[in-house]
Amino acid sequence: MFVLFSNVSFAQQTHYKFDFGSGRIAKGFLNVSSNTRFENNGKYGFDFNSKVKDVKQKGKSPLLTDGVISNQPFYFSVAVPEGNYQVTLTFGDAKAATLTTVKAESRRLMLENVETKAGKFLTKTFIVNIKNRNIAGGQVVVLKPRELTKLDWDDKLTLEFDGHTVLRTMEISKADNQITVFLAGNSTVVNQDDEPWASWGQMIPRFFKPGVAIANHAESGLTLASFIGSGRLSKVLSVMKPGDYLFIEFGHNDQKEKGANDGAYRSYTERLKMFISETRKKGGIPIIVTSTSRRSFDSVGKIQNTLGDFPEAARKVAQSENVALIDLNKMTTQLFNALGEEPSKKAFVHYPANRYPGQNTPLADNTHFNPYGAYEIAKCVVLGIQQQKLGLNKYLINNRPSFDPSQPDDPASWIWPESPKSSLVKPDGN
């Protein structure tokens, strides 16, 4: 299990420039060799027992003649305070082609299968949101036990590199001028820590250019009420700026509440309206997202609704409150129907026993997604942003292929470098 909480005495520094490897050090950069360990200085270094080695090559630039390499995923952490950070990386190899995937914090996809040809180097920039538990006024977010060891909630920025990366340089700087997109939801949205689970909230950062930061405050098992009760809405509102967004997706767990005032057209509707009004008071832009469909096929092989009136109630609130709607329930129904009853298992956590360490029984989860399924659903959300003509549109990455939920990507051709596991923990509810 990862041990996450580090020394915070140096955490106020917000700008770092790193030159990796054991060769000449570029002016203005900090040297990071394979022996630079986060646990040794509490400020920056390779983390979680990562094993890397220094590499040297001929050339004139001290930034490109040395670096670090590994044949397995590795982590690099930097202690920073809460906020949005611009991360700029340089990678590539003088002699060989490279293929790089970068994740941040709790498996948030930042860069996907970035190729460099032999002798070529590439620089890429993305934005990472760092959050903490503190709420203005002295309150704190009430975390679940499983969250206490999540990379999302520690006091550092952690990057995960796949085993094909040759890392040359890194610059990290606080970026206060970003539009922040806050995500409120349950386990279909949360940044899942462990393979093979994943959710759309941790895939969607990959589709945005700098200018937008994704701040995922979703957590497994939550309802609108428990998101409020655990202080998460207060936390979001305490750091929201005018022009920021709040995407709201609930329903899976709300439908299990059986109180006298509970139900799609009672407490659920009332709380959705409260989320909207409180966001608008802060100058934010609320977006309603209907709940993802479960993998439940009827007798004729089509997805059936298992969420009762909750998707329709969300649609009606969006209409009555003049809020943009991303109808993820409709799009995921199309997606799973297009895949088909048996092939759709490729989008969910369906695996035979012993596929993962410590997994002694088969996994047959028809609610939670694997990385491929989460990625396809993130594409649905991106499509919704385009259809609603949100201001976020201009920050979507260039040259992305068009997407139609009725024509999903082939799961057999989708590449996902799996992350090292900290534990095999099934998500807590939805």
Largest sheet: 7 strands, mixed
Give the low-pLDDT segments: 1-11
In quaternary terms, these chains amount to single chain
Given helix and strand content, the structural type is: alpha+beta
Molecular shape: globular
Helix coverage percent of residues?
Answer: 10-25%
Strand content: 25-35%
Compute the number of helices.
8
How many beta-strand runs? 21
CA radius of gyration is 22 Å
Mean pLDDT: 93
Strand-and-helix sequence, N→C?
A: EEHEEEEEEEEEEEEEHEHHEHEHEHEEH
First and last CA, distance: 23 Å
What does this structure look like?
With about 425 residues, the chain is α+β, with helices and mostly antiparallel strands. The chain has helices at about 40, 200-205, 225-230, 230-240, 265-280, 310-320, 330-340, 370-385; strands spanning about 15-20, 30, 45, 55, 65-70, 75-80, 85-95, 100-105, 110-115, 120-130, 135, 140, 155-160, 165-175, 180-185, 210-215, 245-250, 285-290, 325, 350, 365-370. Strands 1, 2, 4, 5, 7, 10 and 14 form a seven-stranded mixed β-sheet that branches. The chain has a five-stranded antiparallel β-sheet with strand order 3-6-13-8-9. Strands 16-15-17-18-19 form a five-stranded parallel β-sheet, sandwiched between helices. The chain is globular, with a radius of gyration of 22 Å. Residues about 1-10 have low confidence and may be disordered.
